[in-house]
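We both want to read discrete structure tokens more fluently, so let's practise on a single case. Would you write everything just below, so we can both look at the same thing?
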Amino acid sequence: MKTLRNFIAFTSTLLLVVSSQAADDPQVEKYRKAAEKGSIFDQTMLGSCYEYGKGVPKDEAEAVKWYRKAADQGYNVAQILLGFCYKNGEGVATNEVEAVKWFRKAAERGDQSGQYMLGLSYQYGKGAPSNNVEALKWFNLSAAQDYEIAKKTQFEIGRLMTKEEIAEAQRLAREFKPQKAP
């Protein structure tokens, strides 16, 4: 659980830094105009403004709306943020299965954060069946991209597994082929 708390603290800090870039009304309006024209980056940034109340009143449901627009277009960052909304019940009802759906979309496209979150879902059986082999597969893929917390987590979970289970997770990771963007 220490690893999960560290990851959440890191992610929260990252999101606050990103959202602080959108702290004034003129910037929010720039995001809104570009978001309405379909910019996935600006849809995500506008969602972040609403999630954290930066330049607009805090409105988690509105944040989910904008994250979903970008996530539906395949933007990994928005998919992960939408997954967190479902995981934490922010702007939507808590739904671990739906959270895993969005983490998986990012993970299968090769996103290291999505892979890490999917690994955690399998490790703890939250929204996905508890499965250390699948968890280690996703941690291995994330760690291979130098995602430091995944490196620590893969070591920790590996201590709980047999050599055969570790070998299977490594095989699955080697066979993984990221999907192309839609």
User: Anything to note?
Assistant: The chain has a mean pLDDT of 90. The radius of gyration is 17 Å. The chain has two domains: 1-93, 95-182.
